[in-house]
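Hi! If you just cloned this repository, the fastest way to understand the data is to look at a raw example. We've pasted two of them here, unedited. The first protein comes first, obviously.
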Amino acid sequence: MLRLPAELEIARVRFTFLVPMKTFSRVLSGFTLATVLAAPLHAGPWQPLFNGKDLTGWKQINGTVNYEVVDGAIVGTTKLGSPNSFLATEQSFGDFILEVEIKQEVGPSNSGVQFRGLSKVDYMNNRVHGYQCEIDPSERAWSGGIYDEARRGWLYPVTLNPAARTAYRDGEWNLVRVEAIGDSLRTWINDVPVAHVIDGMTREGFVALQVHSISQESAAGRRVLFRHIRIQTTELTAAPRAPIFVRNLNANQVSALEQAEGWRLLWDGATTAGWRGANRDTFPEGTWKIEHGEFVVLGNASDEIERPEGKGDIVTTGQFGAFELQFDFKLPPGGKGAVKYYVMEKPGSRTFSPRGLQYQLLDDEKHPDAAKGVAGNHTHASLYELVARAKMPAGLAIVPKAGEWQHGRVVARADGHVEHWLNGIKVVEYERRSKEFAAFVAASKYAAVENFGLVEKGPILLQDHGYEVRFRSVKIRELK
């Protein structure tokens, strides 16, 4: 890896967002020092976090693996019986840009760089928790993803940015970069942008080097090496926008970056503006409430009695053709609901349930509907009655769980290509104008519904099925 003199390091940071590292090294040879430094610089000096000689400024929190300095690198070695181990800075940091080089000699061994990390007596007996830039050389290749250690789990699996899955090179030195400015959290692996999360839960904490726990003796003794650890904390300027998905966990918020990409709220988080009852002009009474920034279906007194479909369904006042939709939702145990799109209504009807393509919301473990339909096409996040949800990988905040917030996403393109996403995983993919789709409809309960799923535009619908389903952060952007 190219290492520059100290006076050129800031220039490299700014310049490598515009050109790849290999290109930069060639271009640099044709520049004089004066030419490079003539460009405006908008970051303070780098501060080393590791002196290359000993562990001054660091302390071990959690775990019993051995951390030592070998040939100018901090080396952590996996140990059977140890929980996740962290070597943390004694200093805490708020806004910063961090760089560290990492190499795993033998693997795959999970590791990571904790940032804005916390360890408190009143939280799981001092267990380290907070954001982590994952180092994951396993088959799934989620290195650079953002994981919320010992708290919420995966905030940004690299399934959201599959092009970045090859950025990490197992067995070699890799440059890991983390940018934490305000609520914006971004990661790079070898100058490839990987993840972008917007979250305001934690704004300050330590940096820590993780060696993950292991469950088999054969994985013991694997070394993870860290070197050239440095940080910038003053005069920070965010890197240029990268064309990757942005996951915003701040409830009912559209960031300036998201606005620039065309996103807007479909629900304002406080009123019923922009929504009306399905098949009618007014908002239904007695079936919804708004509390704590959440749009909530009022559940029945008995979960054994489902409210008839259509009574309390609500739809957007606007209609959408090609779009990308996001929504957070929470199902009660045994709960059921839906988000529909390309909806067809019957104005004036009080009993007709509007027809539309349906992103199913269901507690698969406790609701009997999961076993109905064909080959699982009634299960959670499926295209209800038509296409079953694909199998999901394991992982905290990946595997759907009733009673906890989940993240849904629908991408419906102008060419008819449609995707369902659940908690960062693409689980359904189909072409709504294809012969295959027509065959699915013909074999379903929608066979007699004229033009089902084929309308050019329609409102978005939130279903009232009598269960207390909660929604927030409902947002949309229209696609060309």
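Ok, and the second one:
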Amino acid sequence: MNSKNRIIAALLLASLALPLAAQEPPPQYGYSIVNRYPHNINAFTQGLFYHEGYLYEGTGKNGLSSLSKIDLNTGEVLQSEQLSRRYFGEGIEVVGDKIYQLTWRSNIVFVYDKESFELIESHYNATEGWGLAYDGEQLILSNGTNTLTFLDPANFAPQRSVQVTLNGNPISLLNELEYINGEVWANVWQTDFIVRIDPQTGNVNSSIDLTGLSDQTTLGSAEAVLNGIAWDAEQERLFVTGKHWSDLFEIELTGPR
């Protein structure tokens, strides 16, 4: 972790522990492991979602970036599409019969047919692409800053944005996103925290401390940090994993404390 990222992580921890005067600290949840599933330790996980019984994963790194449909229970890749070596894949999301996939610094968003993985179209993205979620009307984009941008899925045109803050402090390095029960959940890159964000105000409503979860799996590289949130809305199951982790975990929240 470089010095800038250490500062961000320290700010996050300080914000959680020491709220500004006259402010109540937001609730902080722990976790318990309900189940574990196999995960490709070579996958540099950038985007994750669960849809109609299957896990979908977008991976990064030039020459290794892909979009895959995966059997949750076995980890078998059922369908996959490789990106050109020039692209570093990032967050993914499903909207209707389409799957959107960000690229990091290429300013391109790829749109695929959900069933065939055929590339249908692409859109311009003016910022870096990190995480992507969908609230039922608009796509939600993170770009490594504390800004979330809401976009029209039809043309990827920005509609509005919010600044994410915790106790008045901006929280940057927002990475993989998931929209769960009216909140935006975001991994904070290179930390063990997920923050739960009010999409109207940008305020962090609560956080989840996943410290120790990486000790429960095999890590495949020095870059094997927490990243990846998927929500099974029908059965209310929460899945998390990390880059180069050998397991994907189903967890339940405990607390708050």
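That's it. A detail worth noticing about the second one: Residues 1-8, 17-22 have pLDDT under 50 and may be disordered.
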